[in-house]
């Protein structure tokens, strides 16, 4: 290819041939009508792949593109240039864009010694940050603070020489808590987390998952919410410039990335601020070359004195769908919000503060179990759930049936996002359920019956009813059959006064906690019944729940009265004359609330193991037809501690694309389960999968990947029984040839006889 021919003609690249559906491309929905354009792009990419470095540089100089970097970098940069020009010309996109308009690059320096022992506690001594404008592709500001360590206040000579930080700088520095406050204020000054989206960028997982996480534990301060997800620039770099040189992260350190891009390190190595500046330069180069930079790592557990036990020493996992944290090996569905929930911070929204007194028994029960309740009016103008990406509460209780609009920054969108991020919500309606709660219910899969309608039952009402038969007595047999949600069954009836909801029975995430009697119906009590009822019988739900795929829990009750002190303490006298000293409301309501707040029905995977029969540790790979053992240990949260989970319905699958094995795990007691089986005679990459979904419990999804290899040549059988006829045929043939040869060579005719 000559230099003249190397200039690519893209004039007709956006030609349109057809009209059709859409397809996915680079996180955009692209009309299929533009498919011929992408076919042309594929042809152009092929030509670029065949170009030499000199040809690439000539074209890139003409187009005023950066020519630094190895040949793979140049090819990637030129391909992306043509791709974006084609997309813009076809009016598929206006310009290159990234989800985060700002990046905050952080490279933390910590105390160290020449040979750090395994139990060494790293303390932050330098906290730098560099702010990058992703749209303008330039560095616009930086932050730097030195931190005074407390456990190792004197720096080692090795640390001083490595980082360039002196003892005097550390002795005169602020504590980590003050440093973090200064950094948060710096974010506020740039309106990051409020007006502008941003993401933390690091070189590897350790800055957030080990240094910042560990420092927050030692300083006994909450881990900052804005740092629960971040961008590991090494992963982005390795994925975008996928070549043999950057195939493994160990080869993809800061110096290696700069060298690959033909860039020189600026400043002093291991200086936190200088390292951050150089990482920012790499980030900018990635943006210029067309990389889509998105969050790819996150904290999955926040260690607190809580029911969630000890966490991993490096609690970090790749980012996946918020609804399921089970994509990595040995996942036990420990969502971030579930771990944060251990602090038990709960916001309670009320119609008025009188409800705090009329429902004091329930609130006191929660306080006794360690919940910190913050009471506010539902229309309080100062209401806020989060700030700078950090939630102030893990649970939300709304006892404000008539609210039409929430105050402050609280809205239906923020509440649904709160649920998507793992928060738990309990809210109650009433005869006059406000539009805000109706909309929230609809978002969660509940349809509240018409305004001013009540549950009416002419055959099951309390003697103290006003005559409209709306104070309904319902049997505890109408509760969902789950001790984790409603507690152990009892004969005490339940008092209910309020509205009802209807749900889609095909929705697998919705749970009917309490349904109406078959004789009940929903209608406006002040009007004569002239039309068909809005709902009848057991189709009407009094209390419904939603457990999302991320194990967030939402409960809606059509009655605020159900949770009141009056309902808890009053006696029950049914219309048929049966009397009960007290209703069953208190026990049932308390259990439902505790279940909603994840104080009941929590289950986790403690450990997962697998090995060959006769061994004890996982092998690098299995061979076809091996005998394998799979073991898993489950625990559940009960009465303030983790105890072994005892069940006989836990199954495991051995899956390649489809399951090759599916079987019940043998309950070995003490929460341990075992399954022994024979590896299939088909080699490939398999997964041990355990998916455990039971009503009342959080869902478990554990996936462990293993490889299965074929037999080695020395492992095949030398003689097969079914092949014996062939063996005998071959040997008999050789024997026959031997006899024939012997006779042929040694047989001589008698000469006399011949004459």
> Helical element count?
21
Percentage of residues in DSSP E strands:
15-25%
Number of beta-strand segments: 38
How many separate domains? 4
SSE class: alpha+beta
Low-confidence stretches: 1-6, 10-35, 244-250, 303-342
Using the CA coordinates, give the radius of gyration: 34 Å
Average predicted local confidence, pLDDT: 82
What's the N-to-C terminus distance?
87 Å
- CATH topology-level fold name of the largest domain: Rossmann fold
CATH architecture of the largest domain: 3-Layer(aba) Sandwich
Largest sheet: 8 strands, mixed
Topology:
Blueprint: H1 3-6, E1 22-25, E2 28-31, H2 35-49, H3 53-62, H4 71-89, E3 102-105, E4 109-110, E5 124-133, E6 138-146, H5 157-163, H6 167-171, H7 176-189, E7 198-202, H8 206-219, E8 229-232, H9 233-240, H10 254-260, H11 272-288, E9 297-299, E10 316-318, H12 336-340, E11 345-350, H13 354-358, H14 360-368, E12 372-377, E13 386-387, E14 390-391, E15 395-399, H15 412-420, E16 424-428, H16 435-443, E17 446-448, E18 454-456, E19 472-474, H17 483-486, E20 494-496, E21 501-503, E22 510-515, E23 521-523, E24 535-536, E25 541-547, E26 553-557, H18 565-569, E27 572-573, E28 579-580, H19 585-596, E29 603-612, E30 622-623, E31 627-638, E32 641-644, E33 651-655, E34 659-664, E35 666-667, E36 672-678, E37 684-692, E38 700-709, H20 724-746, H21 751-754
Parallel strand pairs: 3-7, 7-8, 11-12, 11-15, 15-16, 16-26, 30-38
Antiparallel strand pairs: 1-2, 3-5, 4-5, 5-6, 8-9, 9-10, 13-14, 17-21, 18-23, 19-20, 22-25, 23-24, 25-26, 27-28, 29-31, 31-32, 31-36, 33-34, 33-37, 35-36, 37-38
Helix pairs in contact: 2-4, 3-4
């Amino acid at each position: 290819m000559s230099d003249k021919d190397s200039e690519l003609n893209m004039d007709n690249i956006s030609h349109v041939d057809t009209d059709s559906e859409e397809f996915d491309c680079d996180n955009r929905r692209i009309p299929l009508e533009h498919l011929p354009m992408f076919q042309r792009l594929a042809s152009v990419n092929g030509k670029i792949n065949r170009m030499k470095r000199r040809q690439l540089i000539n074209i890139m100089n003409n187009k005023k593109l950066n020519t630094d970097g190895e040949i793979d970098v140049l090819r990637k940069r030129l391909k992306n240039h043509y791709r974006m020009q084609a997309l813009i010309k076809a009016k598929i996109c206006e310009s290159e864009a990234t989800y985060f308009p700002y990046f905050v690059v952080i490279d933390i320096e910590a105390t160290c010694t020449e040979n750090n022992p395994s139990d060494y506690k790293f303390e932050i001594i330098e906290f730098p940050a560099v702010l990058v404008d992703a749209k303008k592709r330039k560095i616009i500001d930086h932050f730097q603070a030195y931190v005074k360590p407390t456990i190792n206040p004197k720096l080692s000579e090795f640390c001083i020489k490595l980082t360039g930080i002196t003892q005097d700088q550390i002795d005169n520095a602020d504590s980590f808590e003050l440093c973090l406050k200064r950094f948060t204020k710096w974010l506020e000054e740039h309106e990051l987390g409020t007006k502008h989206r941003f993401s933390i960028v690091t070189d590897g997982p350790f800055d957030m998952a080990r240094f910042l996480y560990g420092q927050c534990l030692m300083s006994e301060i909450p881990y900052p919410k804005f740092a629960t997800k971040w961008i590991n620039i090494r992963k982005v770099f390795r994925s975008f410039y996928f070549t043999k040189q950057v195939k493994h992260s160990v080869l993809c350190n800061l110096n290696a990335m700069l060298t690959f891009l033909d860039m020189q390190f600026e400043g002093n190595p291991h200086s936190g601020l200088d390292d951050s500046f150089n990482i920012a330069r790499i980030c900018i180069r990635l943006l210029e070359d067309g990389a889509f930079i998105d969050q790819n790592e996150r904290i999955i557990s926040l260690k607190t004195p809580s029911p969630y036990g000890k966490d991993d020493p490096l609690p970090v996992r790749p980012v996946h769908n918020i609804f399921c944290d089970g994509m990595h090996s040995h996942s036990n569905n420990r969502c971030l919000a579930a771990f944060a929930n251990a602090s038990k911070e709960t916001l309670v929204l009320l119609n008025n503060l009188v409800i705090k007194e009329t429902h004091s028994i329930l609130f006191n029960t929660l306080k006794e179990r360690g919940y910190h309740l913050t009471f506010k009016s539902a229309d309080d103008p100062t209401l806020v759930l989060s700030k700078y990406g950090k939630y102030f509460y893990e649970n939300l209780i709304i006892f404000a049936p008539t609210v039409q609009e929430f105050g402050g920054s609280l809205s239906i969108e923020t509440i649904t996002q709160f649920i998507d991020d793992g928060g738990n919500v309990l809210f109650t309606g009433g005869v006059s359920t406000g539009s805000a709660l109706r909309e929230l219910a609809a978002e969660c899969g509940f349809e509240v019956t018409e305004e001013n309608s009540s549950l009416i039952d002419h055959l099951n009402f309390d003697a103290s009813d006003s005559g409209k038969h709306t104070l309904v007595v319902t049997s505890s047999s109408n509760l969902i059959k789950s001790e984790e949600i409603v507690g152990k069954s009892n004969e005490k009836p339940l008092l209910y006064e309020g509205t009802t909801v209807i749900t889609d029975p095909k929705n697998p995430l919705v749970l009917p906690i309490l349904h109406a009697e078959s004789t009940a119906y929903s209608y406006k009590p002040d009007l004569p019944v002239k039309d068909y009822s809005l709902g009848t019988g057991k189709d009407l739900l009094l209390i419904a729940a939603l457990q999302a795929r991320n194990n967030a829990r939402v409960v809606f009750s059509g009655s605020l009265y159900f949770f009141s002190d009056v309902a808890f303490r009053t006696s029950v006298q049914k219309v048929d004359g049966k009397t009960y000293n007290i209703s069953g409301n208190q026990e049932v309501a308390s259990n439902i609330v505790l279940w909603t707040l994840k104080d009941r029905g929590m289950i986790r995977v403690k450990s997962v193991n697998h090995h060959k029969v006769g061994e004890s540790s996982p092998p690098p790979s299995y061979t076809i037809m091996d005998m394998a053992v799979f073991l898993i240990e489950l625990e559940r949260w009960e009465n303030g501690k983790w105890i072994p989970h005892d069940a006989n319905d836990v199954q495991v699958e051995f899956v390649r694309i489809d399951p090759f094995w599916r079987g019940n795990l043998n309950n070995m007691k003490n929460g341990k389960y075992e399954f022994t089986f024979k590896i299939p005679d088909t080699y490939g990459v398999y997964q041990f999968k355990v998916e455990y979904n039971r009503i009342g419990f959080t869902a478990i999804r554990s996936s462990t990947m293993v490889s299965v290899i074929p037999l080695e040549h020395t492992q095949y059988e030398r003689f097969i029984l079914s092949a014996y006829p062939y063996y005998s045929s071959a040997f008999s043939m050789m024997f026959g040839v031997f006899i024939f040869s012997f006779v042929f060579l040694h047989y001589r005719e008698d000469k006399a006889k011949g004459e």
